[in-house]
């Protein structure tokens, strides 16, 4: 006896997939989502600043629980020189040592305020002008205006050290450049431009004003030299990109930030990575061309619509054909689908650097059942009043 052939067209879900009720109910789900988004923009009712989950992104799980970075070796192309609490005279000496060791590019991730003394200031300014491989740092305010850096002038290579102009509780992205009155390049972009013009061209060709940071290394996966130590071996920096800055330790959290590498991915208690090490991760990503490819808004929306459409067909099939099991089946489907699509998002992010925003998909699946109740009531009323043809045509009491 031959087993029965499976025919997709004979399944309940397929039979309802192209019905008008299924398509209209799916569209209604996204109209409601759009309404919530509009209310949020106008009134801030769902202001994420008031929600602790702003610190959490499920893609962070790929970095900590799934250990996306665990098998990577120590970076041998980028060196960090820790200046600790060095003054300007000591920083000038460190830069000179790194320069004499023939580093390829020297990124000085230090912000200098007002004048300290003529001697120290003159010596440091001379170093910045004389060493063409040095890239200085400066800050931008929220309107992309320069915040004065004492040594900032047109003779120096430089880049802004803000990751973005908006506050980030967890540093997940950065702006490669910002176009305001002029084009400002980020600190990492300025360094890549000096160190590897081809990789700089690749970065700019992407045309993304914001890039997600593909973290690959924690502090112990970079070569860190103690700049204040007389025993420090600076010969190791030859032909390497060198970042000079403060690597905070212990209870010193100056310029230290939360990142997805933090082992406490929810309810983080302590920042885990210094700014100079975050810059190193960005530069490593740019050197390798190892970018995270984030789906565009319309791609996320299309994906969410298709998945919601299929689920709505499933819900309608159970509602009409097996109504007694509808509530159980719909809740189980919502639960399983939520886990499946979170896992799918993590898998694509972990294995292929594809970042999909699954929030719309999961929200649509969760809303679909409740929207279906309202839709069923509305079209049944229309059926009785106007003869509107609908799958939901059973009699309702007056």
Task: Please describe what this structure looks like.
The chain is of the alpha/beta class and 398 residues long. The protein has 2 domains: 8-50 and 295-386, no CATH class; 71-291, no CATH class. 42% of the residues lie in helices and 13% in strands. The chain has 10 helices and 15 strands. The chain has helices spanning 12-17, 20-43, 88-100, 118-130, 187-195, 197-206, 275-288, 297-321, 326-352, 359-386; strands at 75-82, 105-108, 134-140, 146-147, 157-160, 173-174, 177-179, 183-185, 211-212, 222-226, 241-245, 256-257, 273-274, 293-294, 354-355. The strands form 5 sheets. Strands 1, 2, 3, 4, 5, 10 and 11 form a 7-stranded mixed sheet that branches. The chain has a two-stranded antiparallel sheet with strand order 6-9. It has a two-stranded antiparallel sheet with strand order 7-8. Strand 2 (105-108), helix 4 and strand 3 (134-140) form a beta-alpha-beta unit. Helix 8 (297-321) packs across helix 10. The longest helix has 28 residues, at 359-386. Mean pLDDT is 86; it is low at 47-53.
